[in-house]
Amino acid sequence: GQNIDQPTEMTATEGAIVQINCTYQTSGFNGLFWYQQHAGEAPTFLSYNVLDGLEEKGRFSSFLSRSKGYSYLLLKELQMKDSASYLCAVRALLGAGSYQLTFGKGTKLSVIP
Amino acid sequence: DADVTQTPRNRITKTGKRIMLECSQTKGHDRMYWYRQDPGLGLRLIYYSFDVKDINKGEISDGYSVSRQAQAKFSLSLESAIPNQTALYFCATQGQDYGYTFGSGTRLTVV
Questions:
Q1: CA A52 to CA A55: how far, in whole Å?
Q2: Residue B75 burial by CB count (10 A; 0-12/13-18/19+): exposed, middle or buried?
């Protein structure tokens, strides 16, 4: 099975930097995803890491350490519109070239003025 | 048009009724998924299908059934709806690239 942990809620100030951590335990690890989800809306893809290191995409960066089972999502220059839930998801190989994505419970980020 | 379309967007139904949630996609993806989302529990996998002839149970399949009518269509049925099936339901597709593409969701309330 898989176990994915991330904080339930975080609060940060507009213009600041926030780091959302995710730890996981899984067999057949094949990549880690971050999704953003505004209340009542569909999750949207933010980033993907399969190798160790940092992936940067504009104001958002994601880091992965496979040996530690650890990832973080870094949001810079926070804006009010970044208030949303951030979902960590782990892809695991099931066998025969097929794989499955399992989601953490999400971290609700509130950005305050 | 959206890549992944779910209907209906909202539905209120009575306990014991049969209801079908529909999902269609224009991305040409073989892999399709049904998730439900509950506050504090995150997204949980109900059923998934890797092609038209392939149906697999997910983490919480009890009380649900699915039909993959074509590559583009994957329907979720509740044969006899119960109140604890009240949730936000998402359909998703997966291509050969990285992530999933989600539909806009169906908010189902069972009274």
A1: 9
A2: middle
**CB-CB under 8 Å, B99 with A42:** no
Helices (H), B1-111: none
Tens digits of residue pLDDT in A36-89: 999 989 999 999 999 999 999 999 999 999 999 999 999 999 999 999 999 999
CB-CB under 8 Å, B40 with A103: no
Q: Are A42 and B103 in contact (CB < 8 Å)?
A: yes
Q: What is the DSSP code string of A12-33?
A: EETT--EEEEEEEE-SSEEEEE
Q: Rounded to an integer, what distance in angstroms lies between the CA atom of residue A56 and that of residue A64?
A: 12
Does the beta-carbon distance from B90 to A101 stay under 8 Å? no
Which of A33, A42, A45 is the closest to B104 by Cβ? A42
A26: nearest Cα among A76, A100, A112? A100
Q: Does B48 touch chain A (CB under 8 A)?
A: yes
